[in-house]
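Minutes, project check-in
Item: structure for the 328-residue chain
Input as provided by the requester:
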Amino acid sequence: MTSPVDRSSDSAEPMAVRTSTSRRHVLQVREGIRQARTDVLAVEEPLEIRVYPPGGGPFVQVSVTMRTPGHDFELSAGFLYTEGLLRTPDHVHTISYCTDPSVDRVQHYNIVNVALQPGAPYDADRLRRHFYTSSSCGVCGKASIDAIYVRGVGAVTDDGLTVDDETIGCLAETLRTAQTIFGKTGGLHAAGLFDRSGRLLAVREDVGRHNAVDKLIGHAFLARQLPLRNHIVMVSGRASFEIVQKAATAGVPIVAAVSAPSSLACDVAEAFGMTLLGFVRGPQFTVYTGQHRVRMHGRQIEDAGSAAIVRSTCRTGALSKSFGLPEH
């Protein structure tokens, strides 16, 4: 039986506290003709994540990110998990919006409180260091990869996952079709969770590509579905270091992207035994690492140095135009 794709909000998250789209009057110019119309825009607002220690006490501000409202509890849980600050749902007592009377009511739904269970690991100094470190730059690639190992993230091995090239070729169109907010605005990234047969299990959208992945992983974290050993994560843009390291933390064997990966993303995927696919747009995609998980059926493979370009048979239309991306 095919289960429906999960696009629902967090079960404990109040409904309609924020909207993901807004309307604005604009002037559209097309071929010299001007027309006043109403346009639909993706909402972008800050989200502050606060962590409260076990047993109560002052909170620590862990992160402030610009996001599209919706699935805020999943975003918070996913961020804390992929950054190594949460290990298991059992460590979470409650996740709630801010009700502090000293805070402007308008901002209540832009602040998420994560209260830890008694006995959960808690290091306030580490949380504070993380906030300042994540706001800075200048860390080299090797140090970035070493930092993932230090958090206890292991290589994705012995998963036994292989996926047909035809299945990979159909991922992008399936994800694009499920991007309901992007369809209205044209302004959001998406991350989709697929099983080995290419069935879309969940999709999350956000103005930030890393937020979409955090929402997706946060959904799996809160549902106790981690690690995602037999799954594929597909993203609608490029594959950055941040996206691949988050997938590695969640145990994802295959990461696919509509656009290109960065060099450091490839390094992370190789270091952690992952399969990284780029330019996944219908009948053609590029395998950057982990070719052993791609099962071919007599299709054409072109050796392009360190990557393999695969031409499969899934014909899904003009995906480059659909996503607004350059050709490869």
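Outcome recorded: The chain has ten helices and 16 strands.
No further action items on this chain.
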